[in-house]
Design a protein that fits this description.
Shape: globular
Structural class: alpha+beta
Number of helices: 6
Strand order of the largest sheet: 3-4-5-8
Radius of gyration: 17 Å
Distance between the termini: 35 Å
Oligomer: single chain
Helix content: 25-40%
Order of helices and strands: HEEHHEEEHEEHEH
């Protein structure tokens, strides 16, 4: 069968608030390493290239109304770390006006270990050891139900330079 994104959920299976869901769709659309070979054709005739997970993420973003080409006009890509089975995540650094935004997506156990805060039900809180354990337990429950679970994260910061990248920008994504 074809892999598809059934839904976007917060940890524990709760629905995401609309503003969070919108941001997650943007992130998965921008980070999905899939592309349409024949974008001028009708959607049902598209030839979509990429790994199954990336194709599913790309289509989920598209079906939610996010066009990767349009997003890339707003989000100027500076650097990208493609997904690989060793790192278990992908990441990209983007420039939006004078702000830099680092977007990351991958295995929850990898992403969560690198986070300092977490947004749950629209509320940002410190990611304590107890909360991390709770999140890992929720991920295990979902994967135990046969679900493929990915985590997304973002970090925004103001660019120190006027134009282009700085050494710090490149260091952030390595």
């Amino acid at each position: 069968g074809v892999m598809e994104v059934a839904d976007l959920k917060s940890y524990g299976g709760q629905d995401l608030p609309p503003e969070n869901k919108s941001k997650v769709y943007q992130i998965i659309t921008l980070l999905a390493e899939a592309f349409i070979e024949n974008p001028k054709d009708k959607m049902k005739e598209w030839i979509l290239r990429g790994r199954p997970t990336d194709k599913a993420l790309f289509l989920a973003g598209h079906n939610a109304g996010y066009d990767k080409e349009k997003l890339l006009k707003q989000y100027k890509e500076i650097s990208r770390l493609p997904f690989n089975s060793i790192n278990k995540f992908s990441a990209a650094l983007f420039k939006i006006d004078e702000t830099r935004e680092l977007l990351v997506m991958g295995a929850p156990e990898i992403i969560l270990e690198r986070c300092h805060t977490v947004k749950i039900n629209g509320k940002q809180e410190k990611l304590s050891a107890a909360k991390l354990k709770e999140l890992k337990s929720a991920v295990n429950k979902m994967t135990g139900q046969g679900l493929r679970v990915l985590a997304v994260a973002r970090s925004s910061f103001v660019s120190p330079g006027a134009n282009g990248t700085t050494a710090d920008d490149k260091k952030e994504i390595e």
